[in-house]
Design a protein that fits this description.
83% of the residues lie in helices and 0% in strands. The chain is mainly α and 221 residues long. It is flat and about 75 Å long.
Length: 221
């Protein structure tokens, strides 16, 4: 009976599941892509000489990392439309911004450790040649990026799963599709099984690709 219901759901709502997967991956891709840029900038500020900028970057990182993601989603969902009413931000935009801010905080720690993993001798050599801090960072960052690439991929996997919290606001992700289909069919277990399999296949495949990537990076070294 369970298998029959699952097949019927796939036949009737297969497009809905695919659309949900597309939205989930889009949320994760935007969040991690922009989050990496924010994370790199915050990491540079935290390693910089300015005490004020260092303090601001530290507060941002600690506040985001030490509060629940769902709380942040609620905060940005209700706050942004009030602060920026002229932009008329959609639910999807508010949730995406919250995920970007969250991902940026975690990626800042990844980039900070990546930068600190580079031999200090390179920094000292660049300074001895008269290079500015910005020019020095142009030499360090590409090497740090290579070191943190697997961690960035892991962040994408983590965010892909965390986007399930966005279903609280019905933005069209996989869990939103589950709620919609379950409400229409009065089935609970069957759509959950389908959603679970989709999440597993996607994240498991990503994890395997990350393992291959790590091996290649080690071989290049």
């Amino acid at each position: 009976m369970l298998a029959q219901n699952i097949m019927k759901l796939l036949q009737k709502y297969g497009v809905n599941f695919l659309n949900g997967l597309g939205t989930t991956l889009l949320l994760a891709l935007i969040s991690v892509s922009i989050g990496c840029v924010i994370g790199a900038l915050v990491a540079i500020l935290r390693l910089g000489k300015s005490k004020v900028l260092r303090a601001v970057a530290t507060v941002y990182t600690e506040v985001i990392r030490d509060t629940p993601l769902l709380l942040q989603l609620y905060f940005f969902y209700f706050l942004l439309p009030d602060i920026l009413p002229a932009l008329k931000l959609s639910k999807f935009a508010c949730i995406t911004i919250a995920l970007v801010i969250n991902s940026g905080a975690y990626m800042s720690e990844v980039f900070r450790s990546g930068i600190q993993s580079i031999d200090r001798g390179q920094t000292e050599a660049a300074r001895s040649l008269g290079l500015s801090a910005r020019q020095t960072m142009r030499i360090i960052l590409p090497q740090a990026f290579k070191n943190v690439l697997p961690a960035m991929c892991n962040e994408f996997v983590a965010v892909t799963k965390e986007t399930s919290l966005a279903s609280t606001f019905y933005v069209g992700d996989l869990m939103t599709q589950y709620q919609t289909i379950s409400g229409k069919t009065y089935l609970v277990i069957e759509p959950l099984v389908i959603i679970g399999v989709i999440y597993f296949v996607v994240t498991f495949s990503m994890s395997k690709l990350i393992t291959v990537l790590e091996r290649r990076l080690k071989n290049d070294d």
